[in-house]
Specification:
By secondary structure, the protein is an alpha/beta fold. It folds into 2 domains: about 1-20 and about 270-385, no CATH class; about 30-255, Spore Coat Polysaccharide Biosynthesis Protein SpsA, Chain A, CATH 3.90.550.10. It is about 50% helix and about 20% strand. The protein contains 15 helices and 10 strands. The strands form 2 sheets. The chain has a 7-stranded mixed sheet, sandwiched between helices. Strand 2 (about 65-75), helix 3 (about 80-90) and strand 3 (about 95-100) form a beta-alpha-beta unit.
Amino acid sequence: MLAALLLSWIAMSLISTYATFRYFQLMEQVGTPSRPARAVVIVPIKGKAAATEAFLSSLFRQSHGNFRLLFSVETAADPAVPFIRAAAAISPSVAFEIVDAGLSVGCGQKVWNQLAALKCIRDSDELVVFADSDVILPATWLETLDWAVNDQAQEIVTGYRLLFPSDRRLSSGFAASMNLSVAICPRVTGLTAAWGGTMAMTRTTLARLDLPRWWQGALSDDLRLTAAARAQGILIHTNRATLLSTPWSGSFVSFLEFGGRQFRILRLNEALLFFGMVSAIAIPVAGSLVALTLAFSGEAAGWLALAAVLGLGLVRQRYRQKIVARVLPAHELASLGLWRLADGFGRAVWWPLLLLIGLAGSWGRTVTWAGTTYRCDGPNATRPLSRS
């Protein structure tokens, strides 16, 4: 039993190291579309967050030459609206529309906003892209998605976030490290789930998904879209070049709440995936405890396991930092020396914390998201309980 656990830990470390190396290689998944498709980008947005202005600036300044923007808000008086108009004034050539979706009824507010925006898609739109408003986009983000969908014939293309600490708190650094491990975990086409911050597809694929049916009563837009794609036999591809920088600042408690919410939503929508992820996170924690116990008992197997995993960890760390350097600009990297050190040597602390966060999502049916508390009794059974 103990030997099997140690071997599982070493095997997982070996797989993770290769996956990290392969992720870095696949960040070259970029290209220019042979014919830029007429694209529409749908952005559900609420309030003003730390990255709102940077996000809007990066969105309006996309190098893709043929796109328009649909911003969906729960009220025209939303604090984000003036910032949208200010960004649009700087880039007057980009067409945009603000959709007043109203308060959600019987589903999550984000899903409600997206459903309202879907009604504004035109017959002339060829590429449909969903985006979150808490990220900072590279100028080639939309071009890369267009190229992947149309030139590479990938039916749905998704990406992920790269949290980076926007302050010097240890909690922010550990949060960024935990997120990085999730971001670069192996993603197999056909098994991977979509991430709501980047989801791109043709209008034909969108029609096949029948999202108004799958999003009815839903809290999670991306996990229900994943289920719709699975039902239609549509493959979801991860493009590693769309790993998007996302500033994060918060305490351990705030990240525990954020991560616990994400895991809880995953459990309520994809229970098998949830339990698989938590089990995978538990293996290194259990393996390290067994190895340390054996090592301090004089057992060579414990020392050998620790040496193997630490050696693989050093190799993996090199490529983790290369991935970060590929995403973040030089001036951001220069200020992140403390985090990069914590990312390499703090694994013994933040990996058990990640397990704790996963376990925090294993119970409960209430989810608080963007100021609204929901009761979620199933993938399509959501109702708002209170709003702040």
